[in-house]
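Obj: model holo form, ligand = L-homoserine.
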Amino acid sequence: MNPIKVGLLGVGTVGGGTFAVLKRNQAEIARRAGRDIVVSMIADRDLDKAHSLADSNIQVTDDAFAVVTNPDIDIVVELIGGVTIAKDLILKAIENNKHVVTANKALLALHGTEIFAAAREKGVIVAFEAAVAGGIPIIKALREGLTANRIEWIAGIINGTANFILSEMREKGQSFETVLEQAKLLGYAEADPTFDIEGIDAAHKITIMSAIAFGIPVQFDKVYVEGITQLTGDDIRYAEDLGYRIKLLGITKRTDKGIELRVHPTLIPAQRLIANVEGVMNAVVVKGDAVGATLYYGAGAGAEPTGSSVVADLVDVTRMQTADPMHRVPSLAFQPDLLSSTPVISMEEVETAYYLRLRVVDKPGVLADISRILANSDISINAMVQKEPAVDEDNVDIIMLTHLTIEKRINEAIASIEMLPVVTGHVMRIRLEELDNE
Ligand code: NDP
Ligand code: HSE
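Output (holo structure tokens):
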């Protein structure tokens, strides 16, 4: 059988890793796919970089459109990134009847609906395992392995850069800025690292997983996003003293009111397996009604781990390309005409527990004032600790953990607490999730 011909767009971190994995494991991959998968064309703005990989059988160009319109190419692998040229290239590839493999979570979170519709129209596959959690086959697990289940919730550490920063800050006491620079050098961070530290990259990924888990359209505009830039070493330490770790989590949950879709720093009990996922590693917990909680762990970023997922998609597409499109696994797991209109609820409606850090003047009656405000908002305190004087002898940090409440109530209570003359500065509020198997 003739080899499947791949056109590779972008040979940066992931493109380079994909090329290396495909080349090194070529024989085994062919045995699995049933035919050879060969890169026959590479496009990159940096021709020297492309030439350094390519042998004489591979055509090299700096014009990515020459690849997506080339009739000899069967599968286009988009590893350029961004949501402008990448979108044009993918739509052009689809228009030219090519299957597409991409790691571009930003593009799918924002324009997935349009891209999947175009692919359906043409009967081609758009595969995107590498777009979520790098090397972890979480898309495959959600879409196929857990297909018997009604998914209840997903919670994931899905940004390696943010997890690396939080881990290094906790373990080594290093500053946020120092660790971010390391993450950039190691190739973990996005071209724009604000995507990593402000939670946007995690939001792209949880948006995609939410769509697959609940059979809803991809709705990036509905996700609540809060990053890690406001976290302090004090909060990381105080949380640890109380038996919790702080992780940037992407969470999506089915509730009676609708779907929760959110990214924010979260306290989780230190004994949970996911709380012990450190460095650039990612982990996703999926709770299904039949299977219970399942955990998926692995490298969430980097050249070869992400390349591993890209190559897995290449093998899948190679196996499935001759199948009737009706008999392929749908892009979002559910049949496209059977997607649900269940709404994504606003953050104000979300119910969770909270960690509050208040800096207060150390004098009688302060706790009574704060407790009264919380009680008036029907918020119940679960635990409370007063720390040693933080800044000077007159000011102390008080840490409170609340029971479950509605975000709207905690926001109102915080606004009232901040107006007390004895409270100095803003109240730090971090959400807390038990992530138990209930
Ligand atoms: P890189 O920046 O390392 O690589 C992108 C490559 O594409 C660069 O070589 C770049 O050249 C080239 N390029 C950019 N624009 C064009 C163009 N118009 N025509 C031809 N070549 C172009 O990015 P990554 O490999 O890190 O990321 C690629 C994709 O994978 C992104 O969507 C990212 O979100 C995703 N991803 C990345 C992961 C990671 O660990 N890095 C993990 C999972 C997903 P130049 O350098 O000259 O700009
Ligand atoms: N910048 C991303 C991360 C790459 O740090 O997780 C993987 O998507």
